[in-house]
Amino acid sequence: RAKKDGPGRVLAYQPYMHTEALDHLSLRGDLQRALRDGEFRVQYQPLIRLADGKPIGAEALIRWYSPARGFVSPVDFIPIAEEFGLIVDIGQWVLETSAVQVARWRRDFPDLGLNVNVSGHQLVHPRFTDNVLRALAIAGLPSSAVTLELTESVLMSEPDLGKAALHQLRGLGVQLSIDDFGTGYSSLAYLRELPVDELKIDRAFIARAELTGEDLALVRTIVELAQILGLRVVAEGIENAAQLTALRRLGCGYGQGYHLCRPADAAEVPAKLSRASIAVRG
Length: 282
Ligand code: C2E
Ligand code: MG
Ligand code: MG
Ligand code: MG
Prior knowledge:
By secondary structure, this protein is of the alpha/beta class.
């Protein structure tokens, strides 16, 4: 087999790019092999409390370094893993791997939480609750340390599917976050029905450098909505000091982004957690 490619490798032109349908099928086999042969990894991006820079958790982000394809973004392979029914196993691997990792870090960072992205296909799986609990048991991680991130579009597309599982998990102490909030037309009534703990403001609203005008008004509205509903609010994609200042001024509680801390391999994370508050204080 070809040796593994490192991070940052640019995808070179390959003949398979011509034949997309064929590639689609071969991707299925590659994804199956990837899980079996250990080609997936997890990177972690801290969630930072904006008032003082304290890292309150880490989001697990899957990475695929394919010997044949190089680095493949989760944006590209997650939908295909869903289509081929592979996401339940891949998602479970992420959950178990990251739960074990965060349980280990909690010896030095006792309050650290874990945020994990969950596909709608995992949520509606009949054994979803058991799968989550199994991962926590393997890791010895308390349920209160875990926040499951589901995108707004998944939650709104099938409002009743998975609702029982979410309530069951919430009853066991697991927290729920709505990822990419603001892009999926949530009904406010529905927000109150779901056992939600956290809203993550989609980075599209944070993206413009100065955070002014309509973007600022929208972010302010989401922050206020979260306050009214008693939810944690996290701004995604903070890339510069101006955005950070604007968000702190609005009273946005938490943030993530390249300006605060980039996603990193597990080995680099403890040092980053120790230094995390510098961007906020400086
Ligand atoms: P997401 O959950 O909304 O994750 C945030 C994405 O924004 C991540 O991209 C992260 O690396 C990136 N990001 C963080 N800070 C910044 C910033 O300051 N600027 C910019 N431009 N980007 C930033 P990534 O890792 O490529 O993941 C993309 C999406 O793939 C995730 O969006 C999530 O929907 C999905 N994903 C990642 N890992 C998993 C997983 O284990 N399971 C599932 N089901 N989906 C996953
Ligand atoms: Mg996420
Ligand atoms: Mg997001
Ligand atoms: Mg996103």
